[in-house]
Amino acid sequence: MSAFVYTNDYIKYNSFYGSGEFDYIDSYMQCKFKNVHWSLNQCELWDWVKTFEYDNIHSFEFIRLYSTLSNREIIPISELVNILHEMKYISLYGYDNHKQNYYYANYSKK
After folding, report:
1. Is the model's pTM score more than 0.85?
2. Residue 46: partners with Cβ closer than 8 Å, 6 or more residues away
3. Other Cβ atoms within 10 Å of 89 Cβ, number
4. How far apart are CA 88 and CA 90, in angstroms?
5. Which three-class secondary structure state does DSSP give residue 61?
6. CB-based contacts of 16, cutoff 8 Å, min separation 6
7. Nearest CA among 48, 38, 36, 37 for reference residue 1
8. What does the domain layout of the chain look like in residue ranges?
9. Is 3 in contact with 41 (CB distance < 8 Å)?
10. What pLDDT tens digit does each residue of the chain (110 aa) get?
11. Distance between CA 74 and CA 106 in Å, rounded?
12. Where is 11: in which H helix or E strand?
C-alpha cells in the first residue's frame, strides 16, 4: 500500500498513516514527529519502516530518509531511531491507534 496517491500534483495522504499533525504529542517532540512523518511520505518509505530495527541505520533507505529530513531539521540519530520506532507502530497499526496508545501510555494515571 502506498503512503500517498498523486492526483494533479497534489499529495493526498493515506488516512491509515494519518495527517502527520501529532497534536497529541508535546510541542518539543511534535515538530520532530511531523518532520519524520513528512520525510517518510516524501521518500515513500512506509513499507520499509514496517521492518525497521536499529541495525538498519546503515541502509540506503535510512540514509535517504536522513538526507531528506536534514533539509528540514537535524535530529540526533538516537532520537530519530526512537521516532522511527513510533513510525513503525503507525505503519503497522495506523495513526489513530498510535494516537490512542500514545496518549494512554504517556498521560493516563497509573
Report:
1. no
2. 1, 2, 3, 17, 40, 91
3. 17
4. 5
5. helix
6. 1, 94, 95
7. 48
8. 4-107
9. yes
10. 444 444 433 344 567 888 888 999 988 899 999 999 999 999 999 999 999 998 888 999 999 999 999 888 889 999 999 999 999 999 999 999 999 988 878 776 65
11. 25
12. strand 10-13
Element (H, E) at 43: helix 27-43
Q: Which amino acid is at 56?
A: N
Write the single-letter amino acid at 95. Y
C-alpha cell at 23: 497534536
Distance CA 3, CA 17 (A): 7
**What values do phi and psi take at 106, rounded to 5?**
-105, -20
